[in-house]
Specification:
The chain is of the alpha+beta class and 429 residues long. Helices cover 68% and strands 12% of the residues. The two termini are 61 Å apart.
């Protein structure tokens, strides 16, 4: 029994240690996008609005189909041969009876009123679909920007840790040389100052990395993303295309603009339907049923059919007001589309300028790091040879560190600006 207990304890400790040593699961950009789309409530709400618009289209198309109602009437009169003497011009007779029946109504034509209402509902459905796509693209942009920002913070943290390690070695070397009186106490002090600066840099980079991972977790719809390992799948940076092509793509593909275009179409169709409501409606009507209580005045069965023409004449100005209201709404929608298109052109210009600047900055920081690394090698050689002071060497180290951080920032800033430009042109996927 003791052996069994020791074995179980050993296996349990092994499992715990194995779990602790296991690397965190990886999270690629595509996986992050899929997770965000599954979790984000805004995208779910946009999809529900599309479903709602689909049902509204069915409601508007229902007028094309027959309308059937079933009836059951039971009437008991106080006197024989009862007549209604007030409440209308006609005075129909009312008899004791029990009967049931069905009435069917089928619209023949309303001169375009229903067709335009259905067309407007169909345009609203297309607008809702584009609204869902716009919500999707906004989520994808947020995920891409947060993902690259987290990778950026991680890259800066790696540079800071490498700097700290290098300066730790320098402190130890200078301290050893100072013990043998080959370096002065000033050299020791400068090396310690440089090491402390590297510690501050690491502390700041760690905080920035934690904040970036928290932002990524929020973009994914989870509490945090500290338990995952991000995968850097960057391709080579590509210079953006010409402005005219990008503007043309944005006006043709951006889902928010397509959403407004369909809304304009829907408003125009509703205005046309309001205009068509001034026209007559031609309807076929049919009724049939049975009489359960025998009466000499009434047959046992009945059936009738006819055609009814309804002509709107006067509603106190309501028809004209509804038509003008719909026309004004259509004009408002058109102006909103024009404003959105102007804003889209501006956004593309700004995004292109930022992308071009980031692309140029990336090339410049690469040159800067190359020059700073060469200067550091020369300064280190001169310091070892005793032909320069530690101040020159420390400055060279500092310049090389800042150049490495600038390059890390520039590389991921370029990716973020590429994502923003793709979003502004409707190309983000």
């Amino acid at each position: 029994m003791k052996t069994i207990r020791l074995t179980a304890l050993f296996l349990g400790m092994t499992a715990v240690l194995g779990a602790a040593d296991a690397p965190p699961p990886t999270l690629t950009m595509e996986q992050a996008k899929d997770e965000a789309l599954r979790n984000h409530p805004a995208y779910a709400a946009a999809q529900l609005r599309a479903l709602l618009a689909k049902e509204a289209l069915k409601v508007s198309q229902a007028a094309y189909y027959p309308l059937a109602n079933g009836y059951v009437d039971a009437v008991d009169t106080a006197w024989d041969n009862t007549r209604i003497l007030a409440g209308g011009i006609n005075n129909p007779s009312v008899y004791d009876r029990v009967g049931d029946g069905i009435a069917v109504t089928q619209m023949i034509t309303d001169f375009g009123h229903t067709r335009n209402l259905a067309g407007g509902a169909r345009a609203e459905l297309q607008a809702a679909a584009q609204g869902a796509e716009a919500s999707r693209e906004q989520i994808l942009l947020n995920v891409e920007a947060s993902y690259y920002a987290a990778l950026q913070a991680r890259a800066v943290l790696e540079v800071a840790r490498q700097t700290l390690s290098t300066r730790q070695v320098l402190v130890e070397q200078v301290g050893a040389l100072a013990k043998h009186q080959l370096k002065s106490g000033l050299d020791v002090s400068f090396s310690q100052v440089a090491f402390t600066q590297a510690e501050l840099l690491v502390q700041k980079a760690e905080g920035d990395s934690e904040g970036a991972m928290a932002a990524l977790g929020s973009a994914l719809g989870r509490s945090g993303a500290d338990d995952v390992s991000l995968v850097d799948e960057r391709g080579p940076a590509v210079a953006p295309g010409p402005l005219s092509v990008l503007i043309e793509q944005a006006l043709a593909r951006r889902p928010d603009l397509l959403n407004l275009q369909f809304k304009v179409e829907a408003a125009q169709r509703v205005a046309a339907a309001a205009r068509d409501s001034n026209y007559p409606t031609l309807t076929a009507v049919g009724v049939a049923g049975n009489a359960f209580a025998a009466d000499s005045h009434l047959p046992d069965k009945y059936a009738a059919a006819g055609v009814q023409l309804t002509i709107p004449i006067f509603e106190g100005g309501a028809m004209v007001a509804r038509q003008r209201e719909a026309e004004i709404s259509a004009r408002i929608s058109a102006q909103a589309l024009k404003e959105a298109q102007d804003n889209a052109v501006r956004d593309v210009r700004v995004a292109l300028a930022s992308a071009v600047t980031a692309y140029k900055r990336l090339a410049t920081t690469r040159q800067l790091l190359s020059h700073a690394s060469e200067a550091l090698d020369l300064a280190q050689a001169r310091y070892k040879a005793g032909s320069s002071s530690i101040v020159e060497f420390s400055d060279a180290q500092l310049n090389q560190t800042y150049a490495a951080i600038a390059l890390a920032n520039a590389e991921y800033d370029t990716r973020i600006q590429e994502a923003v430009l793709d979003f502004q042109t409707g190309a983000i996927r």
